Amino acid sequence: MMDLSIANFAQIIVACLLIIGLMVGNAVVMVYIERKACGFIQRRPGPYEVGPRGTIQAVCDSMKLLGKQIFIPGNVDWLLFFLAPILAFFPVLLLFLPIPFGKFLTGMRVDEGILLILAFSGIGVISNILAGWSSNNKYGLLGAARAVSQAVAYEIPMIMALLSVIFLSGTLNLSEIVERQGSWPWQWNIVCQPLAFFIYLVSLVGETNRAPFDLPEAESELTAGFHTEYSGMGFALFFLSEYANMLLVSFVCATFFLGGYKGPFLDGFWWMFIKAYLIMVFIVWIRWTFPRVRFDQLLNINWKWLLPLSIINLWVTAVVLRFV
Amino acid sequence: MFRAIIDNLKGLWSLLVGLSITGRFFLSPQRTTHYPRQVDDPECLASYRGPLELVPADDEGRSRCVSCQMCVKACPGHCLTVVKGDQGKAPKTYLYDFTLCCLCAACVESCPAGAIRFSHRVYLVATSREALHLDLLADLKSRAAKEAR
User: Fold this and answer.
1) What is the mean pLDDT of residues A112-138?
2) Are the C-beta atoms of residues A306 and A228 closer than 8 Å to each other?
3) Domain tally, chain A
């Protein structure tokens, strides 16, 4: 592990500040991309009036959200009600720390980086339960229950898919996993682990509660699921953390399967961001293409297909690595 | 077992088909118009039933109306007021209250002279009720003047 000197501490503080900036900026940019992409797919312009081609729309939306009254319904559990959005937002900060944005651009170099990410991403689920439970609302509670069973289910194939890449590179350190891959696309892990990449791609959609797997917040049946009773900043924090989680899984995907910060011609953090945002755009694309699945379908996809496939993939990887 | 696998592979293929369709839509031109800056093609408005207007009888802005009051009697909303002029059959006033009109076309169908029809004014807006009390004779004159120019 690392030594906790003043320099390291300062590095972590600076990294945290930069990550908060990244999270907020990402939410604003993604809201714009999401609404624009949705518009184009439905053959309309999307936001258009505020600023040149609607670019300031997302900023205006966030300002509106900041200025909103925080409305608290009766019979809520106050402590948990206020704790839940904070618990949703701040652990995500920690998750970004071990991500290698560039060769030297890492918040915190830890040997067990991916372990840290997988362990602390569970706190997000706790915040969903707390939000659903404390708001004393049947929709909230149902949304929370769905969020938990979904997150628990999709975490397993996700970890299995990552594990086969970890077997391949022999390390849990994210920077080293990137170092084991080359600059050109045929040197990336996706070439030898296409099935793992596919499984990870499906389960990251399930893990971040995005459509078509957005059952915890299904608007048409649960109004908004676990954050039904949240308004103003409480809702904004959930919103921010949702987009930050999306960015995080995209970064992990880019690191594990797409060569991280390495890319043709010139390695650097730009490749990392380009890859991550391409994955984000893909997630947006599937959101506006596919209808929401039913809950039993959601769990069937996971337990009957993704889990056996990921176990087979892991097993084959292990056998090939041992005997070839 | 094999059947389930084949079904799921087919399902996977259909997902790709769906993605290709939305991807194509994403790249193809938009179908909406930016209203204040763009207006619709007049061809698209040919069947639009806007507020009534009088059919011109000639280029000088005279109406075909013979002041027979058939339209006034036929109107279920009582939105028309027609007063016969002093000379001949031509009307002196032809007032139309658009706030009461239900665009039922009873007046258009009852008119023996074919003097009224629906306009295609899709962009008509008003800030007061009085602005929707239209004087159709004046409207006819101004249209004729505009065409003469």
Assistant:
1) 85
2) no
3) 1
